[in-house]
Amino acid sequence: MSNIIGLGLDATDIGRISDTIERYGERFLKRIFTEGEIAYCLRRRVPAIHFAGRFAAKEATMKALGTGHSQGVLW
Length: 75
Fold this sequence. Notes:
Blueprint: H1 14-24, H2 26-32, H3 35-42, H4 47-65
């Protein structure tokens, strides 16, 4: 039997991510996402949906790892 070390779950409001991108633009994107992620999301018809999904996945991962933003997780 294995032990669960950490579990993370996150839901992100697509509108909030869209508004944040509109307000902070490249500064926000480069702080949160890799160049590859940015390129991928920008190729989609509705980039905010894909940015929000990746943001939620990263938040959930940091919760599971117990690191939070302050530990400077490098993607």
